[in-house]
Write a structure and sequence with these properties.
The complex is a heterodimer of chains A (257) and B (266).
Chain A: H1 2-25, H2 37-49, H3 52-84, H4 86-100, H5 107-115, H6 119-144, H7 147-155, H8 160-171, H9 173-197, H10 206-215, H11 219-252
Helix pairs in contact in A: 2-11, 3-4, 3-6, 3-9, 3-10, 4-6, 5-6, 6-9, 7-8, 9-10, 9-11, 10-11
Chain B: E1 8-21, E2 24-37, E3 41-45, H1 52-60, E4 67-72, E5 75-76, E6 84-87, H2 99-108, H3 115-128, H4 144-156, E7 162-166, H5 174-191, E8 194-199, H6 202-208, E9 211-216, E10 221-227, H7 239-255
Parallel strand pairs in B: 3-8, 3-9, 6-7, 7-8
Antiparallel strand pairs in B: 1-2, 1-4, 4-5, 9-10
Helix pairs in contact in B: 2-3, 2-4, 3-4, 6-7
The chains are: A mainly alpha (257), B alpha/beta (266).
């Protein structure tokens, strides 16, 4: 079953690469605009061997993880607080709702002016890009819990901190995971925007590689870096969120049609 | 009409409760008093709106009464406590835990037990409700009846004095219910718990209760009280049981005619 699925995925992507290669081979487009899959593979191999790709991935992932974790640490408690308190809901909740609609790239000019061309600017953009959606997803999750769980918990003596950590938080887990996933996607997008627009000297990330690929008119680099970004996104989904989702589906009995 | 009973361990003393809703004020409970003996199985029946669930919530400490008191073993009830655990119409099992984890939930909040004590206790009560082989099943894998058994094990595990049951079988099919009537009577005999059981099903009340308290609606009052001296275990389909049920059913219907309780208020 697993082997069959892997085979389907493999065939699909092989076919896509084949189409790409056929498009290049047709000669209709200039090689400057459309490099062949082999050129891109060459670039990726070279970039992996001379260490640029590995260090770029490392720099980018480090920024992403730090920013995302900060976003979660700020977002989860505020979201819970918001679900429980009308004042927080009306104030911070409204703010979060508004700022969530702001495309994260819009934080870049502000970050540049406040923090200059620094790591701080990167982190600021990532945190601002992800924290609002985490807040809103957490609030939504905590509100959607059937009240009977809290009642059942209370009769068994679960109050206060215990109630929040052992009843409310796990009960809203399905929403938290989708909120965290959304937060991750937003953090990833914001960071790419920040890296493409902000040139900094403290670390050369994937966004910078992409940016310089364009400056140098190196389309093999541009497409190669884009591929790496996609693969990292898929891998993050697989490593960070799939286990949670499998757990949720098994426990809650959801996800089967 | 109060017969000679063992001394009351659980006293509901002149409890009243009003709710303010968008459609006006509801007088849920009006001066309700009730004495419940240790180890008694008592059923509260009445039409919807008679305040029986509200009374149970107040006894549990989940809701505060406007006036009056609930006294458990001489101590006024002011908040939920381990001594009075509640079972609901829905199982209210926690889907993020497996069945064993659910039974352990209340036990983990019970002080003075070692980890081993807790495991042993959970296993014992799972065995009592016949779910040993489902200890590590997920909640959604259980049938409605099995969920209620699991909820019963979860409520029994912390060893409460009083078990409060709020229409726990109302959502189940008749065959499953019949089995659970037998189980409840057996478990009640084995554990010696005081059980306060709320239902709108008169036969169910007669099948389970030592006493059946009939409540009248708007305002919720105790209308009448019936002793059920039938031997146990009782079969819900027996003729003697049906006779009691008919008598109580007649009294219940007469409440519907705006006759706010002709029987004696204890």
């Amino acid at each position: 079953m697993q082997i069959k699925r892997v085979a389907v995925v493999g065939t699909f992507f092989a076919a896509l690469a084949g189409l790409w290669w056929a498009a290049v081979a047709s000669g209709r487009w200039s090689a400057v605009l459309l490099p062949s899959p082999l050129d891109v593979a060459d670039y990726l191999w070279a970039a992996a061997r001379d260490g640029t790709m590995i260090s770029a991935v490392y720099v980018t992932m480090q920024r992403l993880l730090i920013g995302y974790v900060i976003g979660l640490i700020i977002g989860l408690p505020i979201g819970l607080l918001m679900s429980a308190n009308k004042w927080v809901e009306d104030t911070i909740g409204t703010l979060a709702l508004g700022l969530q609609t702001l495309p994260s790239v819009c934080w870049v000019p502000l970050a540049l002016i406040w923090f200059g061309q620094s790591e701080g600017a990167m982190l600021f953009v990532v945190v601002m890009g992800s924290v609002w959606s985490v807040i809103i997803a957490t609030d939504h999750g905590a509100r959607t819990i059937p009240p009977i769980y809290a009642r059942a918990g209370r009769t068994m003596g679960s109050e206060g901190f215990h109630k929040w950590t052992r009843v409310v938080l796990p009960a809203s887990l399905p929403f938290l995971v989708s909120g965290m996933k959304q937060g991750w996607a937003f953090a990833w997008r914001s960071l790419m925007a920040a890296e493409i627009f902000v040139t900094i000297l403290t670390g050369f990330g994937l966004g910078h590689l992409l940016h310089y690929g364009r400056e140098l008119n190196a389309m093999d680099q541009v497409i190669g870096v884009m591929l790496v970004i996609v693969v990292i996104g898929l891998a993050a989904d697989l490593i960070l969120f799939s286990p949670w989702e499998r757990f949720l589906h098994r426990r809650w009995g959801t996800g089967k049609l | 009409m109060a017969p000679v009973a063992p001394p009351a361990k659980f006293v509901v003393d002149s409890v009243s409760k009003r709710f303010v809703t968008s459609r006006g004020e509801v007088h849920a409970l009006d001066n309700v008093s009730l004495d419940i003996a240790d180890g008694e199985l008592i059923c509260l029946v009445g039409p919807s709106g008679c305040g029986k669930s509200t009374l149970l919530d107040i006894i549990a400490g989940l809701t505060r009464s406007d006036s009056g008191r609930v006294i458990a073993d001489g101590v006024p009830v002011e908040q939920p406590g381990r001594q009075r655990l509640m079972m609901f119409q829905e199982s209210a099992l926690f889907p993020w835990l497996d069945i064993f984890g659910n039974v352990m939930f209340g036990l983990k909040l019970t002080p003075g037990l070692s980890r081993n004590d807790r495991r042993k206790t959970a296993e014992r009560y799972l065995d009592m409700v016949g779910l040993t082989s489902f200890a590590h099943a997920n909640v959604h894998e259980l049938s409605g009846g099995m969920k209620q058994r699991a909820a019963l094990a979860r409520a029994l595990a912390p060893d409460p004095k009083v078990l409060l049951m709020d229409e726990p079988f109302a959502a189940l099919d008749a065959i499953t219910r019949d089995q659970l009537y037998g189980d409840i009577q057996r478990i009640w005999r084995e554990t010696g718990k005081t059980i306060i059981f709320v239902t709108h099903d008169v036969r169910e009340a007669v099948c389970l209760g030592d006493r059946v308290i009939l409540m009248s609606p708007r305002p919720g009052r105790i209308a009448q009280e019936f002793q059920i001296p039938l031997p146990r275990p009782r079969d819900i389909n027996s003729i003697e049981l049906a006779q009691y049920a008919t008598e109580i059913g007649t009294a219940l219907r007469s409440l519907g005619n705006g006759n706010g309780g002709s029987g004696s208020c204890k």
